[in-house]
Amino acid sequence: MFELPRWKIWGIFLTIIVGIAFAIPSLFPKSQVATWPALAPRTQIALGLDLAGGSQLLLEADLADAARQRLAAMEDSVQTELRRAPRIAVGDISTSGGRISFMLRDPTQIDDAVERVRTLTQGVGLTGARTWDVTTQDGNRVFMTQTASGQAEALKNAMSVARDVVRRRIDPSGTKEVTVINQGQNRILVQVPGIEDPEALKRLIGQTARLEFKLVDQNADPNQVAQGRAPAGSQVLPMADGSGSIAVQRRVMVTGEQVAQASQTFDQQSGAPVVSIRFDSQGARRFGRATTENVQKPFAIILDNKVLSAPNINEPILGGSAQISGNFTVATASELAISLSSGKLPVKLNVIEERTVSADLGKDSIESGLIASAIAILAVMAFMIITYGRFGVYANIALVVNAFLILGIMGIFGSALTLPGIAGFVLTIGAAVDANVLINERIREEQRRGRKMLDAIDTGYKEASTAIFDANITNVIAAALMWYFGSGPVRGFAIVLLIGIITSVFTAVNFTRLLVALWVKRKRPRELHI
Amino acid sequence: MKLLKLVPDNTNIDFMRWRNLALILSILVTAASLTLVAVKGLNLGIDFVGGQVVRATFAQPVDIEDLRGRMNALNVGEASIQDFGDSRTYQVRLPSPPGDAAESARIVGEVRTALTQQYPGVKVGAGEAVSGKVSGELAQDGLLAISLAMLGIAIYIWFRFEWQFGIGALVTLFHDVSMILGFFALTQLQVDLNIVAAFLAVVGYSLNDTVVIYDRIRENMRKYRKMQIVQLLNLSLNETLSRTMVTSGSIMLALLMLLIFGPDVIFGLTVAILLGTFVGTYSSIYISAPILVWLGVKPDSFLRVEEKSTELRGSDGAMV
Lengths: 530, 320
What we know:
- The complex is a heterodimer.
- By secondary structure, chain A is an alpha+beta fold.
- Helix content of chain A is about 50%, strand content about 20%.
- Chain A has 3 domains: about 5-50 and about 360-525, Up-down Bundle (Multidrug efflux transporter AcrB transmembrane fold), CATH 1.20.1640; about 55-60 and about 165-355, Gyrase A, domain 2; about 65-150, Hypothetical Protein Ta0175, Chain: A, domain 2.
- Chain A contains 15 helices and 20 strands.
- In chain A, the strands form 6 sheets. In chain A, strands 12-13-11-16-17 form a 5-stranded antiparallel β-sheet. In chain A, strands 9-10-2-19 form a 4-stranded antiparallel β-sheet.
- The radius of gyration of chain A is 34 Å and the shape is elongated.
- Chains A and B meet through β2, α7, β19, α11 and α13 of A and α4, β5, α5, α7 and α8 of B.
């Protein structure tokens, strides 16, 4: 063992140098690292929200709402498709019971109708299954039901769009390093360092922001509207400020999808905060036509099925821009502007978990955590030296290198350090010590049995290695399983443990062996105090 | 320099002599722990039962009853208030509201606003809201992670050693985990997700200790084929005693430092691991080893089948 091949020596040193190089940036403040030369490593350990301060939200898609929206969209498509020439007249169309059903006025057209609505469905994956099943009954009734794979596909698409929308909504609010990721099938995890009051964040994300412009139904009887009833072709919607409700035509003039730009401004006359929007060319055309046809009539500006305001159309609005007013504050107006320009959420999102830690608390935790870790490591190091002398010093060098390697690897993989991670770190230090304790105790034992010094060291390393291997593999199994099945803090703990076990075996066995070999080679010692 | 030796050379302690007494003691304490958990229950945090927590540090010490009154005036459920280290830091905990999930997050905002308005100079350190749905999943996740880790390890040990060793490790783990549960039931320290990490650390450490001793037992079984099992276990335990003491000692030393100087937030976690280290050390000696005797491990357990038969033939031959 004392004649290590040259490549092995270089391999060990190289690994350690690379590991330390990647750990060093984590010890300096971010602003300073940014000024380092281009070649220098810049990997920094990210701090978990519990240490850095910030907010975390776990959002869950409202599946029932998503299903309703899909049905409504498909119903629209079916109606549009069948209205195209040659028109197929249908009646009794409904979306109850989670499926679309309609009746044909002329039963002989049923094959035609089925073929045409089938073109609205799509194949999923390689199996050729469709997103919707189309079935018939009694020769004149058609049913459309979404298949399981169709639902899964639709949800997947919706969640990926929702994630992008959420990201676009948070990004302009000026915060950095926002994490927005899909979790599971129907969840989105949002982590925003630095934001300590998540209320604004929730309002921003929570708005579906479905903006619609509809004409007010002036023929509706106010008494009936108050009872929630509207004439055919109209609907009753509540006012956003709670001042009762209003009847509007079902037909949509323009929707928020045709908004190209939105920003918070102030009304020139009243000085109140408003949202200025600009339509894209198609939206501008439609808005222009609708306002030309309906001069002197009121239209309703509807956000998420609530009427923000219902101003009169004084003159045709042809320039493609408009102003939305409705009791805004500067903050709520700019939130709406952001929501509108980021697009509407394809599915309603509910906050199911919320965690906020202030930066102060995070700073206190990390300070006392670091101090405690440092004291813990120093105490263990002192203990090792008084127990094993020179071999204790080697174990300590390995320990320090190990700490750097953990930092370096976490930096490379970008895993975040959390509070439980600090505990995992301390435990790993303990486990690293164990490997050296096993080796050193074994060397003592072999010496007691009368082996010569070099032989005792050699046998000690060899015999201890099975125990080290078995003990650490069991820990790797435990850490890997908790990383895979755990969540939050459990994962934060597991990742440090997993990395720490691997680096600690490397430093405690290979690296100390190299140090011992170098010592033996240079000093040619005759006896060993251990 | 004279080096420290926690354990003198060549000890010859008859550990196995106390094995029946230790067994009875262990069974009694385990049963007591589990009874305690069943009777008193665990103080489960919002991670597992859902609800809201706001932690705040006040400019001046406040009257707990006054604070409780103000929180209950918000009408968002019965507030439970716990002091956190000093007389200025308190944790206000509220039960999960009925209804939709967004409600839970809204309540945190309301409590936060009320605190800031009614107590000038207050610093709200943390606010958390976990809906009942998520908390159920977190609890399940945690249990799953612990159970699978235990199972995976037992299977590994069964493959590397013998089935008796796998069972021994499982029983030892069960003992250690029950102990920690009992401790949490007794002290009513809050059990949150961080504590699950502690349980897993205890599982990891306890196994580490057990495996090192099993490894030595296996080695000695191959070396001394004729030795009585009890004598062999005693030998193995004595040979590894020094290592056990040094490792447990240094880990406990590190944890003790973390306990004294570390942040309040990980107090529960550190205490659990510290206790686990202690219990794990005890159980690796007094449970994992003696159980091999009861499970009938024989000195020839590690011989391959053909070796066993030649051995038998050899002794037959000697008798002839």
